[in-house]
Amino acid sequence: NLAFFNERFIDPNERVLPVEERGLQFGDGVYEMIRLYRGVPFTLQEHLDRLEQSAHSIMLTLPKTVEEIAAIVQAGIAQTKIAEGTVYIQVTRGTAPRNHLFPEEVAANLFIVWKEGVPDLGKQQEVGVVVFTFPDERWHNCYIKSICLLPNVLAKEKAHQRGGHEAIFIRDNEVKEGTSTNLFIVKDGVFKTPIADQSILNGITRQKIIEILKKQDVPVLETRLTMEDIEVADEVIITSTTQEAVPVVQVNDRKVGAGKPGVYFQKLAAWFQKEVDQSCSS
Ligand code: PMP
């Protein structure tokens, strides 16, 4: 495993930060998580574009161009020779004495971590997972991939303590997304997923899946979803960079459909793998 801090590659365990750092003290930063398949970063450009948008949304200037960051990501992959793994990128508003106001003339801090290995999805994709719903206690700008993840951490932990795999946020009576996943339902052969407005993160996996479904002529709607929609859904699927697509077989105490992974999930998983194989052939 390897890391990068501002201008140089470092050991991931090297201590490079003083306590007075805006990411540490204020959660004043944004991030991205990218998946490597066979040593190729999947949808790298989309992730870096979103990083730039997230930074712009919090009035933060990236310390390097997207092209420069892409080159560092690739250099780290070459150096570590990771085939299956992840690259985590974090940009914060820099190192400065604690003060809510933006520091003047302080450059942003850029961290990158390359990690070998990915979660084993085998069992989850085979038998499906249980999720629990929670009131969405996050802020109004969930479209920004902010490092302030306390509500996400707390909800996921509560779901875990009840034996669940993921927590799903409900806001204004609408089902929104998971703590680190987007959500799709399938009803009568139609995929439905919440509208990517300011209340959710527009996942790169979500976008890719919508693209794949359209290519396959499977109807997909971006629409409001309520708990009633979940209750009558044939299938529920959560998606993310690291988890790809995972079938949900139970929401709270209620089974989804037949209580096992559905046919649309199986099809989607196969189409997604094909897409990955095409983009990440080494
Ligand atoms: N929603 C939230 C809140 C997330 O944190 C994530 C993953 N970081 C996602 C959705 C999924 O996004 P992606 O497909 O880009 O990984």
UniProtKB/TrEMBL annotation:
Task: Please state what class of enzyme this protein is.
Answer: transferase
What this chain does, per the record? Acts on the D-isomers of alanine, leucine, aspartate, glutamate, aminobutyrate, norvaline and asparagine. The enzyme transfers an amino group from a substrate D-amino acid to the pyridoxal phosphate cofactor to form pyridoxamine and an alpha-keto acid in the first half-reaction.
Record-given protein name: D-alanine aminotransferase
Tell me, how does this one assemble?
Answer: Homodimer.
Task: List the Gene Ontology MF annotations in alphabetical order.
Answer: D-alanine-2-oxoglutarate aminotransferase activity; pyridoxal phosphate binding
What EC number is given for this enzyme?
2.6.1.21
Highest classification ranks of the organism: Bacteria, Bacillati, Bacillota, Bacilli, Bacillales
Transferase as UniProt keyword: yes
Keywords, in A-Z order? Aminotransferase, Pyridoxal phosphate, Transferase
Q: Which cofactor does it need?
A: pyridoxal 5'-phosphate
- Pfam families given in the database record: Aminotran_4
Q: Which family does it belong to?
A: Belongs to the class-IV pyridoxal-phosphate-dependent aminotransferase family.
Transferase in keyword set: yes
According to UniProt, the reaction catalysed is: D-alanine + 2-oxoglutarate = D-glutamate + pyruvate
GO terms (BP aspect): amino acid biosynthetic process; carboxylic acid biosynthetic process; D-amino acid metabolic process
What's in the GO CC field? cytosol
